[in-house]
């Protein structure tokens, strides 16, 4: 059984050791009310994941059921959920729909998780919404004699914000799993299930068990958009859909990537949904897996819109998508001008997708890997997937207690027959990696969204 949490690390990326938002602390100019609100939010122990929907249901009831004020596309799977939710929202906005997006984790500031029409929640809005939650939280906790968790609080905050902002459709990413995830108090019209792989032990020891937890987001009579799945996962999803009288749209049959051509700033794709083929789409995201995400998003939005898809809106919507930390390229960010690729691959499946993209999208380049992974992840599998496509390895540590020590990651690389240089902090690791990387080379920062957020800060990149 899954717990109401997140696919990413249990603490938000960018959180300082004292529990405050890291970006706020580093800036030295954070508003006191914001700093205190974030500190109070983090005091709810982001690492605490407790199964059950009782707390979030009680909190939503106390707030007047904000999750009923909008329709929803619910997104689950092992990887790619944040990107897929962002793609869905971008298409909705381009079609004139007021859209909300709820994703996790964030990279630099907590407001990145909650967006209306693509704009992240501002600091003042975060403070105000948390203030509205204060009395309902106290009421629920007094009645139940237990604390509402960090993720449950953020989920209620997102739904409350969407309701007050007049959101018509929200793209909602699960935290972890689906069936018992706090987000699952919505009855979504569309459930999107990205490829299911083994990742969190809490979700099951087989792909079928994991798929059962993720298929728990399917509501009665919903439409299920299923990416390409292993047979065991596909069978479980189909069975859950039949039990819910839901319609299943399958990748490769009901929607597909017709063709894709990588380019310097992403790719050109042709996508099919049903009988409709839309060609010459500019997708400013790299990798075949992102084209597959776009096809899923297209099918999901078509299922939500009674008026059907507008090809012009599809073109403009996809062209506007930006996803920080997902094969994000930062050009000339090192002393000798080497581009830096930031990617949050945090499990072997994500690392394999990154390795494939590096070979296909950046051929004939010398690549330096800057790796920092969580100690409770299969970092051996991550290392094994990435070593064949990298020429030099620097290991480092993400700013969280769950991070694997750089020496442990370096040892894993050495066991695979490769040398690695352990450097404790991301700033030093970036400096070391960039010192010998020329303009035609590549520095790749990956292994954790924690690390990507810290790297964005170290590189002076703004919150986006």
TrEMBL record:
Its cofactor is Mg(2+). Its EC number is 6.3.2.17. Keywords: ATP-binding, Ligase, Magnesium, Metal-binding, Nucleotide-binding. The keyword ATP-binding applies. It catalyses: (6S)-5,6,7,8-tetrahydrofolyl-(gamma-L-Glu)(n) + L-glutamate + ATP = (6S)-5,6,7,8-tetrahydrofolyl-(gamma-L-Glu)(n+1) + ADP + phosphate + H(+). Residues 18-31 have a biased composition (Low complexity). One of its GO terms (cellular component) is cytoplasm. NCBIfam families: folC (TIGR01499). This is tetrahydrofolate synthase.
